[in-house]
Amino acid sequence: MGFLNKLLSSEGPRKPKVKFDLQKCKVLLKGGENRIRLQKSKLANSVKLQQREVAVLLEGGKDELARIRAEQMVRDELLIESYEIVEVLCETLLTRHNLLALNFHATKENPYPPLPPEIAEAVCSIAFASCRLDASELQTLTEMLASRFGPELIDSACAGQPSQRVWGVNSLVNPRLYSKLLYSVPDGNVVLQKLQDIADMFQLEWKAPAEFEELKDHSVLDSTASTPVFSGNAQRARLSD
């Protein structure tokens, strides 16, 4: 069971397993940024190979199989875009890392310091992404952030609750990142357009068959969807024990 599933199935308050350390946070951010950049490059190369494979399928009249491959391409392209967003967020938090260590007076009602608004989106978005991307550095960082700002706030971000208020602070997951990582089935119109673009790219005389037209009526990539999409081995992700 992955980290996100453990969060959703947990009962009662939990205690973070990793203590907050500002210098370790910086190291984890740099390592996570490098890993995300490498994964983005690999996935971009994979998409190029998929384009040629889809073109071969279209040329051979295997339209249904090409459509399925095109769906995977759309998901991978959304993932590439999410990598780019996470990369920027990591750089943002690195630049403003001193805000992570600001000292506040804890109270009995709230033993954790409030999350500074200047880094709220970066912190919550990285936590959200760490549960859905295969990046162990970001998963460890998320647990460290939970020990700093409280597990309730960080867990709400991980679970995809961008508007939940914890200790008077909004869990502000970046809306673009939220939309790109949350949905699993691409919009039918987007898939059809992807097939047509590939056909044009490889100068194929291809026209969508009549049965594909029904895909236009099944646009499931909308703001009401709730199925999370996981990348690679992310479902097996573990935080450090």
UniProtKB/TrEMBL annotation:
GO biological process: protein transport
Pfam families registered for this protein in UniProt: Ist1
Family to which the UniProt record says this protein belongs: Belongs to the IST1 family.
Protein name: Regulator of Vps4 activity in the MVB pathway protein
